[in-house]
Every structure is written in C-alpha cells, then in structure tokens.
Queue: 2 jobs
Job 1
Amino acid sequence: MALMRPTLLSLIWLLMGGTTLGWSAPNIVLMFADDLGYGDLGSYGNPTIRTPNLDSLAAEGLRMTSFYSAPSCVPARTQLLLGRYPSRTAVGRTSVGGDGGIPSDLTTLAQGLRSAGYRTAMAGKWHLGYAREEYLPVGKGFDEWFGLPYSNDMIKPWVQTDEPLWLYRNAEKVEHPVDQDQLTIRYTDEVVKFIREESGEPFFVYLAYSMPHLPLRTAGVFRGTSRAGLYGDVIEAIDWSAGEILRALGESGKREDTIVIFTSDNGPWLNLPGRMLSGGVRPWHAGSPGPLRGAKHTTYEGGVRVPFIVRWPGRVPAGSVSAEMGATLDIYQTLLSVGGAEPPPGGDGHDMTEFWEGGVNQSPRRDFIYHHGSRAQGIRVGPWKLRTVDGDELFQLDIDSSERYNVAEEHPEIVAELRDRLSAYEARVAAETSPDE
C-alpha cells in the first residue's frame, strides 16, 4: 500500500494536537448518491421531490451546475477515491464473482487522509473490489466500514447468481439476506454515531448510498410521502439522511469546522436493460437528468453531469452558484490538500480550494475527458464538447446544455483542436500502459 508522505503542515498539526498557527484540519463528510440525476433535487429544479435539507446545504455553500463524474458505478468511484480517470486505472471486475480491486500502488482518498492524522470511516456501497480482504474499504484506508460490497441489484432475479449479497462490517460478512428497505437508515445511523464520537483527531466519513440504484428500496416511514412516487420517496429518504447528519454536526459542536459535500456517481438509469424489468422494477423507477440529454451509461451530459454541493462555514461563501467546471477527480485533490496530505503525482484532479472559497472566479479545471467504462469517448474544453461515439458531435454547452444541436460541420477547426487534445490524452494513456521494452 502506497501511503503519501505527510506534509510539514500535517506533521505540525499532529505534534500540536490538531491546531497551530491558526490552522486546523477540517472534518470531512462526503455523501455520494447512486444513480441520482441532475434534476432530482429541489435546488436543481425538481418540481415535486422535496429536498429541504440538501437545498439548505446548497444555500449555505456552493452549488455547481457543471460538475462531472462518470456514467457508471465503478468508473465513478475510481475517479472519486483515486483522483484518476478510469482509463488510467485498472481495477478489473469488482461486482459479483469478480476478483478485481484497487492496485496496491495507488493511494485512496482515505489512505491519504489517514496518513495525515484523520480517523476514517465508510458506510454504504463500495464496488471497488471484495474478493480479498485487502480490496475491501478496511484494506484501503478506512478504519471501519458498514455496507455492501457492490450494487444492490447483484442478486436474483436481476442477476442470475447464487452468490449471496452480504452486508459487511469491516472485513466480516454479518448479514444475509439484507433488508434493503432499511439501508439508508442504517447507513445514516453509522455515520451519525461516528460523527458524535469525541477524539483529538479530525475525521473523514464517506457515505456511499445504495440508493436510488434499482431496485428501489426505502423504509415504510418514507413510502407514499412524495408526489413523485417511489423514486421520490427514496430521494426524500436520502434528504432525511442528510438532515440527520447535519443535525449531528450541529449538536456535537462540529458544524463550523466540517466540510460537507453531496454529489452523485452518475445520472439516472433510464432505458433499462431487460434483466432489470422484473422483481417489481418499473421503467419509471428512475430520476431525471433535468434539462440534460442522456442518462446513465451514456456520455451525454445527463449521464455524467451531476449535482454538487459543498458547505464549509467561514470558507465557502453561502449562496454561491457557479457554472464553472469541476469533477469528482477534483474532490480527491482538494480534500487531500486541505487535510494536510500531499496528493500523489500523476493525478487528474485540481485543487479547488481557492475557487470554492471565492478567491478566484475561474475554476482551475479547464477540460474534462468523458469516459464510458475505461474508454475515452469525448472531451470538453471551456464551453465546447466533442463526443466521438458515432462520428463527431460538437456542442456549445453554454448555450446548448441539452445537446440538441450538433455544430461540428460549422466549426471544423474546433473539432480538429479537440480531437488533437483527446488523441494526446489517449497517447499518454497508451504510453503509461505499454509494457516495458
């Protein structure tokens, strides 16, 4: 396991009990929804789903409207926890029956923060390897973990497997079958308990919801409470969860020195594969990409652009909204930096601290590579997006975020420039993965 060298600042913090020269490492709460669409929160325009807690979080911090993840589960978690594009990171098969996992020479966000003196915990879906103990969260920097090793649909009738879907505590299988109706509540309870623990160390807690990934499940107390049907019930349960976490931070006196982030792994799962249309799943059990085109498993904006909210009292100006670019890759880079850890070289993220704080109006992220699985399918530079799946598609996203108008023929020079930049990235990846001669 490759751990990062603590910075001088983090060493001083450790020696002085957490504060020195006016600086203290912030606590970090990172909430990561599964298949929640760009248009599923009130603050992002949903007309019927009520998300008062997350809307309040947005009002107290920064809400970004051009924030990117990846269009499916494993690549999204690769970007978030490793700060690298999926084409540069071979994790292999990490779902049911798979033997893949995060390579030992890569440093996860949790490993980096733990090396800087953080307590670390995770609740929820992992999906980055489970076949060996060292692939589990407790082998990748988390002091404790309670959750599922992969997606909640990896059981019959949706996946034809006889391997049980186990609920884990740390490296131990503790429960089967799993009552998925209770997952959001139980994950939340774990996080709240961790937040309320008193310690001389800062903490990092990662809550990776299993919902609203299909099959939709939520506790009876939330059923029938939303005007948006079962999907709305599930989202409103997640909003309740966020509210419980925010309340715990306030009641424990940790609100002011905690960074809270909420985002999603990809867009909603529309156009379901046939295997999913059974066991009570209906085609309308999915969210909304809002005004965006596409959905999960596509590199149109609706599959990759997700909500992003960050609150950091006294640092991030309340009520901020920005259409500048950001990505889950940047969460990795930024949180390591503010936590006093030195990000490893060769990452694909940017330190967003100054941008989050409003010190600069322009995000350091000026481009983004769209991936489907481990294959690059397009690039955005400034407002221009080139998608190369079925010929060249060029969109000017500032005026056409719905990607209705392919203007490739009108701007061949921009197509050529973006193609060159995408080819340069692909050449870099090929050079990194070529065997030594």
Job 2
Amino acid sequence: MRHRYSYLDPDLIRQLLEEMGLRRLFNHLLLQSGGDVDEAMRWMRALQDRGYIDPNIDLDAFFARLMEENVIGQDADGNVVLAAGGERQIRRDALDEIFGGLQKSLTGSHSVNTAGQGSERLTETRPYQFGDDPMSIDSIRSLQNAMKHTDPAESILMAEDDLEVFETEHNSSCATVVMIDISHSMILYGEDRITPAKKVALALTELILTKYPKDSIDVLLFGDEAREVPISEIPYVQVGPFHTNTKAGLELAQRILRRHKHNNKQIFMITDGKPSALTENGHLYTNSFGLDMKIVNRTLEEADRCRRANIPITTFMLATDPMLVNFVEQLSKINRGRAFYSSPDRLGEYILADYIRNRRKFVH
C-alpha cells in the first residue's frame, strides 16, 4: 500500500498560479498524486470550483492541448497517463522552478580551479600569464586595453600587459546517487515532503542531462528496504507504511556507484527521520521509539565505509529535532560529509546550489 498527500495548501496553489500558470500547477499536482493524471485533473477541476482557477478558463481545452502535445496520453486500457513528452516537461519544469530561485544564491560563488580532464570557458577574464594557451586570449578586451594608452592618431600598439585570457573551469566527471526517504513520516505532521524530494531528483536529472552530460545520476528509495528506481518512475514515487532503513540505502548507493567509472562519486540523502530499521540475516529489525543504538551504530558503520571508499554523503534534513540533528552530525563527522537543515520549500535550492558549487570544487 502506498500513501498520497491529499491536502492542497491554498497559499501554495495561489503562488503556483501567480508565478507559474496552469502548466506548472498541473505538473505539481501530478507529482503530488504520484503520477495519477486522472486525479491531477480532478484536483484542477475542484480548484476551479473553489475559485482558485479563473472560471473562464476552459480546462477541457487545456487537457486536450496537453494530449495533442504528447504530455498526456492513453494506455492500452484507455486510461489517461503521463506520456514521454510529459516526463520531459516535468523535469524541465522542476529545473526551471528551482533554478529560478537559485540565481541570487549563486551570485558571488567562486570555483576552485584544479587540474582535471577537460575544461569549460567562463565569461570572466584575467591578465595573461606566460604559458597560457593563446587560443584563450580575449581579443576584444585585449584590444580595448591597448586603445586606452594609444594615441588616436597613431597605430594601435599592443603590449603583453594588455592581453587578457578567459578563465577556465576544470572539471571531471561525477557520479551522484540521490537517496529519497519514503518512510511514512514524509507525509506526516501536516507537511508534504515527498513532492519536493521528487522535484529535486527531477531537477538534478535535467541539470545533468543538459549541462553535465558526462556525469551520471541514479535515484534510490529507502523505507523498510532500499530499491533503485529509473528516472522515468520518479513522478510515480509514493511513500508507504515504512520504517527508515538508512543502512540499506547507503549499501545500495555504494553498489550503484561501483558500477560507474567516474573520477568523483557522491551521495545526496534526503530524509526527515531517524534510522529506525536494519536488515539482519534477511529479517527486518525495527524500533521506532527513540534512537536504537544498534540501528544507529550499524548505520554509522556504513557511513564510515563510504568515507573509506571516498564517497562523501551530503544529508539534507527535513527536521530539526535535537536528537535527530545530533545523529546527522555524527554521521557527517564520521563520513567527513556535510549536513543541511532545510524546509521542503527551499530543499531544491539547497541541493542544486550545493551540486553546482561542488561540481567546481572536486579534487581530481
């Protein structure tokens, strides 16, 4: 059995409509409904009945347009489902939504230039130094510098001090695994945490496909057990009546990363709860009350294995309970990773900003 988050936040709906329009609202509802197109359409009609959507908007025509554009379609049984075009649109939309709020937070960030495989030309320039590649010279800026000290009546004389070259950002391929907690707490306490987590996975996927095509991204879900899911299934992810088997998630993440030959490897873990389960001899051991030290210690041992394999874990925590914060801090210390404490509405900005900054700081 899977659980869906069925409460529609009126303020969120208004914001989505004001900033994003019908398409983004439809995509948000699709993710919130676990990819159920019929339910997303029913919610939109209900929102129109309640006055959130302009009554003059023809929703039937809107849905027909989505069908024509291959955003939605019909399966063999005649059910309305998400089509291939819709999956791509959701990824692009998730990236646009998150990246749009990310621009200011990235302003002023500095990349660390280190030797690596390949480089990307940046817009920034710096003075030429002996040994720089002549092909990286910015001819326009260099010419402007020469004109500043040349008499207009004379020929332009360019000195070495006039030369400027484009900065380059060295990069190396990276393999990333995103771990998403699907325990029941991800929709409890009056907050939908699974929808933002899915948006993050979709946005990261689209970012890598478009900007870092040499990188890889894999997604796994962890509840009572851990399982890998293909990118195409992300919109349909739902939480269940599960405990939190963080150890199983870290084990699977390492197996996935071993398949890749990338120079750098990392794990992004999105969770809102303590580890409350582990698998022993094929059986599930659980304890939902407090922090069970048996479960905690086994989980921390797995984090240490990641450290020894040079796999940093960045934990994005959707809770601030002191006991849970203490556990995450221990995990980060043992792994030499990092932890961020974020609300669901800022989760995507945190993760994309962190990915982009780290992408420039990897040691090769």
